[in-house]
């Protein structure tokens, strides 16, 4: 019975790995992140461009995903870069590391869309900087810095993400 569950999990990981461009697919750490649940989380979702998209098309894709969220109504949001999106979103504060992840922050972000996966830090940080520049003046933006100034803590891949929280009140039933 356990072998069937493992086989299903491996099959899902191999399906999800096809969402990434070839240089990222080749990175051993990607398989680890997928096994840890990167493509299966309810709040941290992959919204990657098609694997064969060039840099310009990948940028246009990311912009359209962000605009799609912002067009739904007032939103608190931030664009960033991480080597581990799940950790960055769910990190709980501790004595050794008091800064919380987005889910536990004062803004209590509701979701994270992973917009881009790069095989180099520079590739992902450039996407971050361009997206921050594009959406800097939108209402609810929490980005203060221009992007690319984070610390490279992990081995590749590196991910550009968009975190958000809708300020719309849920519809109430009458």
Summarize the structure.
With 174 residues, the chain is of the alpha+beta class.
Walk me through this protein's architecture:
- The chain is 37% helix and 16% strand.
- The chain is α+β, with helices and mostly antiparallel strands and 174 residues long.
- It has one domain (42-166).
- Helix 1 crosses helix 3 (28-35).
> What is the residue-mean pLDDT, rounded to a whole number?
89
Strand order of the largest sheet: 1-3-4-2
Distance between the termini: 47 Å
Estimated helix fraction: 25-40%
Low-confidence stretches: 1-10
Report the major sheet. Answer: 4 strands, mixed
Q: Total number of helical segments?
A: 6
Per DSSP E runs of 2 or more residues, the count of β-strands stands at 4
Q: Radius of gyration in whole Å, from Cα?
A: 17 Å
Topology order in helix (H) and strand (E) letters: HHHEHEHEHE
As for the number of domains, it is 1
Strand content: 15-25%
Query: Which shape, going by the Cα principal axes?
Result: globular
What class do helices, strands and sheet pairing give? alpha+beta
Features:
globular; 4-stranded mixed beta sheet; 6 helices; disordered N terminus; single chain; alpha+beta; 174 residues
Chart the SSEs and their pairings.
Blueprint: H1 2-17, H2 22-25, H3 28-35, E1 44-46, H4 55-70, E2 75-82, H5 85-90, E3 111-118, H6 121-135, E4 158-166
Parallel strand pairs: 1-3
Antiparallel strand pairs: 2-4, 3-4
């Amino acid at each position: 019975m356990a072998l069937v569950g493992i086989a299903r999990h491996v099959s899902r990981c191999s399906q999800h790995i096809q969402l990434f461009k070839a240089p990222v697919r080749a990175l051993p750490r990607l398989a680890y992140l997928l096994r840890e649940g990167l493509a299966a989380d309810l709040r941290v979702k992959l919204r990657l461009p098609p694997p064969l998209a060039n840099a310009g098309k990948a940028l246009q894709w990311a912009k359209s995903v962000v605009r799609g969220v912002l067009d739904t109504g007032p939103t608190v949001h931030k664009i960033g870069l991480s080597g581990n999106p799940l950790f960055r979103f769910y990190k709980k504060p501790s004595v050794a590391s008091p800064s919380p992840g987005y889910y536990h922050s004062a803004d209590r972000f509701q979701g994270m869309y992973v917009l881009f996966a790069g095989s180099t830090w520079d590739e992902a940080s450039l996407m971050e900087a361009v997206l921050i520049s594009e959406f800097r003046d939108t209402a609810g933006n929490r980005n203060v810095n221009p992007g690319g100034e984070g610390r490279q803590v992990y081995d590749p891949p590196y991910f550009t993400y968009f975190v958000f929280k809708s300020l719309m009140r849920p519809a109430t039933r009458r």
